[in-house]
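I'd like us to work through together how a protein chain folds, taking it slowly. To get us started, please write out a protein record for me. Go ahead whenever you are ready, and we will take it from there:
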Amino acid sequence: MVRKNAPKTLALATAVTLIAAGCSSNGGGADEGPVTLTFAAVTFTETGRGEALEAWLDGFNTSQDAVRVEPAGIPFATFSQTVLTQIGGGEGPDLIRFDQADFVQAASAGLLEPLEDHIDFGQYDLIEGPDAYAFVDDTRYGVMFDVASYSLIYNTDLVETPPTTFEDFLAMSEELTGDGTYGMAFRQTKEQEPGMMQDLYNYVYGFGGAFSDGTELTLNSPEVVEGLTAYQTLYDAEVIPRGADAATYRRMFAEGLVAMTIDNGGVPGILLGANPDLNIAAAPNPFPVESQGGIIVPITINAGSEHKEAAASFIEWMLEPENQVSLQEVMGAGSVATHTERSAEQLAAAPYLQVFDDLTDSTQPQIIEGFEAQTPELRIIIVDQVLSALHGEKTMQAAMDEAQEMAVARFGG
């Protein structure tokens, strides 16, 4: 049963009110009822998955009487700035589902609580690969909430056979564009900067590039420029709804107005939540190299929370095997913190799940290796320069040469 919450149209206002009020709603004294915590996550704002995650959260709230966790849904475009500002001031939510780059930034600034002071992680069957990204300077500040790889998601009513090369991808996108329908969609505006950067990683990784070699920045390497040029080629071909944000073009996809998109494993659930009759499938990205970005998202505890043990009790509940299985079902085509096994019924009902699962080993985090704490600031430089190329102000090579020069001057490397 979904908890009877404030209407979804009030989700952002409710979230900001909860966060601005501080780390928790009450002191949890003997006469005050349970300790009430806030849990901030973008997912709570997503159609379909948001309601399902709230229902999952109710499982914790009804499992005991000592702690209650309230959802705080903040849209992706403003999540980072909102939460980092709040916790930087000693306030904000108790529990936070952070994207990897923001997680590293917050941990490096001393804003997150070391989790091993509260939880014995040796008792859990954690997935080693993603779990390695839960540490900063050898200290565990998080544990994976979910890991979502990216792949090509397509409407099978519009696309009979998915493209396997970029050339075919471009041709099919052009063929399917017209009369209000678009072959492809991705983020390409400053307002969607964090999400646009996530999209860019797929093109860079898919053409064999990386924004650093682990020690030095490589923003203008041939492989990076080739991948970003492919991204621009689709933009210039006008096969996408220019100016549309992710919420808009995902709605259009659900309405049959977008044929293909490269997005993360949580998106099929969002699309089907908007249109349960939508026929979708997934395939590896149609790029030369099978390597794609992945949303590696740890859950953390605010170092300024007044109720760290209560917050830790929620994370311990989350890590219980049955709750990991149900969380994976909510999050869709992705992994959770521990090893789980999908049911045959799940795979039969949603074959695209196997596609995303099979991509886990070739998925790379959306951070700049060796410059993890600087990734949010580097993201601004990269996105601004890519946008200047999209808008015809310079070539992509010139844009990334300038990005490299600016980044090295600021951060070294």
